[in-house]
Amino acid sequence: MAGVQKIVRGKWNMVIMYFLHQQTLRFGELSRKLPTVTQAQLTKELRMLESYGLINRKVYPQVPPKVEYSVTEMGEQFMPVLKALEKFADTYETEKV
């Protein structure tokens, strides 16, 4: 359980996973989808997700540099967990007193 906790504790991890599950994105594209997240925070979260093996960072050898982020096979296996959390959150919001 502690292993899962480190994944979901990141403030933006689940939102980043949600967007990357939909499509491969570059840093700037992700940044535009998360306008309240600083570049430093987004970089930190992306590095964390990459270190957990949930996302892949692909660097293209060109100028200017091009970097794309995508969900790994392990990240795909995490998506049912994310969807279950989303369903719980929706239920919680409608049923809380």
Task: Tell me what you see in this structure.
This protein is of the alpha+beta class. It has one domain (2-95): Winged helix-like DNA-binding domain superfamily/Winged helix DNA-binding domain (Arc Repressor Mutant, subunit A). It is 62% helix and 14% strand. The chain is built from five helices and three strands, in the order ααβααββα. Helix 2 (13-22) crosses helix 5. The two termini are 29 Å apart. The mean pLDDT is 90.
Features:
transcription regulation, Arc Repressor Mutant, subunit A, globular, Transcription regulator, DNA-binding, 14% strand, three-stranded antiparallel β-sheet, 97 residues, single chain
Radius of gyration (CA) equals: 14 Å
N-to-C SSE series? HHEHHEEH
CATH superfamily: Winged helix-like DNA-binding domain superfamily/Winged helix DNA-binding domain
Arrangement of strands in the largest sheet: 1-3-2
Q: What is the CATH third-level topology name? A: Arc Repressor Mutant, subunit A
Total beta-strand segments: 3
The description of the largest β-sheet is:
3 strands, antiparallel
Structural class of the helix and strand makeup?
A: alpha+beta
Q: Helix count, per DSSP?
A: 5
Helix content: 55-70%
* CATH structural class: Mainly Alpha
